[in-house]
Amino acid sequence: MFNAKGIMTKEVSTVRQDAKITDVIRLLVQKRITGVPVVSDDMRLLGVVTEKDILKTLPYDPNIKGKSAADLMTSEIISFGENDSLMEVFESLVESNFRRVPILSEGKLVGIVSRRDIIKFLSVKAAGSKTR
Questions:
Q1: Are 14 and 41 a contacting pair, CB within 8 Å?
Q2: Is 106 left (phi over 0), alpha (psi -120 to 50) or beta?
Q3: Contacts of 39 (CB under 8 A, 6+ apart)
Q4: Quick check: helix, strand or coil at residue 38?
Q5: What would the pLDDT profile of 20-63 be if each residue is shown by its tens digit?
Q6: Which domains does the chain have, with CATH numbers?
């Protein structure tokens, strides 16, 4: 059985809750990512700010420049442990329409599994099965 730890991206860009939303937007653009975890100093997951969170706020608050990550983040996050089944993660991504899920170890962020990570995994598995 494959687990989240085996395919997760370990080098995760994060922000603190007091990060200016303009800096969060800049990070999303520079890293070509669609969301970023918001963490405490000890890497405890507090929430996630996504492109969608930012876009939902614009029509109602044109003064978005004064906002912080804490103001826009989604704090009710579905996450998984690093030893959770890859199938559980896969099903969550499909059923909930998320693009990524945080992976935790002892309550601390240790990685992310995205749709792209799963596609890469499937690609490698498919290539391996053709050579047998």
A1: no
A2: left
A3: 14, 15, 16, 45, 46, 109
A4: strand
A5: 999 999 999 999 999 999 999 999 999 999 999 998 887 666 77
A6: 4-130 (3.10.580.10)
